[in-house]
Amino acid sequence: MQQVAAPARIRVAIEHAEPLVALGLSAALSQQSDFDLVDSRGGSQIVVADYVRGLQLAVEARHRPRGVWQARVLIVTSQEREHEVRRALEAGVDGYLAQGCEVPEFLCGLRQLARGSRYLSATAARRIADSMARSALTQREQQVLALVVRGKGNKAIALALEVSLGTIKAHMKGLMGKLGAATRTEAANIAVERGLVRLES
Fold first, then answer.
1. For residue range 31-53, what is the model confidence (pLDDT) as tens digits?
2. Could you give the residue ranges of the DSSP H alpha helices within 63-117?
């Protein structure tokens, strides 16, 4: 009878700047039968890193010659703001997890990366989805939204931008729909939370 080969184990290196986090990640992997903990220079398939190191690894990988083996990068971090997640993905990071995630999600993320897929925590995915609303706002809608955040009414906004009241109402309807806001107050709160508009000190 032909023997079935055992499935290949996933080689993972831990390069996290926080010793306790690195220890916890290593402990989680040591209890699994499909992972091998290796040195980052020992042919790892995936490197688990903190935010700063993860960005460094992703950037370094982009500058290596094509055809050279590159380990995939999974960031485990407490930094989950929208611009931080976006920056990491644009740098070429393959996975992004919250530092407080459960062990099953951590293992799931690693297995997804080993299959060639990307993996984002629910929070990171939501941050990226939220950022799509920012991209969808026109320049004029952003100007209107900034004035709404400052407490201006439609008439004052129309006067400030030198357009008709009807035009402002149309812009308000458009931007509220894109932000998923039911009221102008909610639109203002969303704008501040997502960093679409900065409050003046």
1. 999 999 998 666 889 999 999 99
2. 82-91, 103-114
Q: Are 162 and 151 in contact (CB under 8 A)?
A: no
Domains of the chain: 10-130 (3.40.50.2300), 137-193 (1.10.10.10)
> Following DSSP, what letter does each residue of 174-201 receive, concatenated?
HHHHHHT-SSHHHHHHHHHHTTSSPPP-
Give the pLDDT confidence score for residue 178 in this predicted structure. 85
Is pLDDT of 165 > 80? Answer: yes
Spell out the alpha helix ranges (H) of 115-164: 122-136, 139-149, 154-161
Q: Are strands 72-77 and 35-37 parallel, antiparallel or unpaired?
A: unpaired
Amino acid at site 23: L
Q: Given this model, what pLDDT does residue 42 score?
A: 62
The string of DSSP codes covering 22-52 is: HHHHHHHHHT-TTEEE--TTS--SEEEE-HH
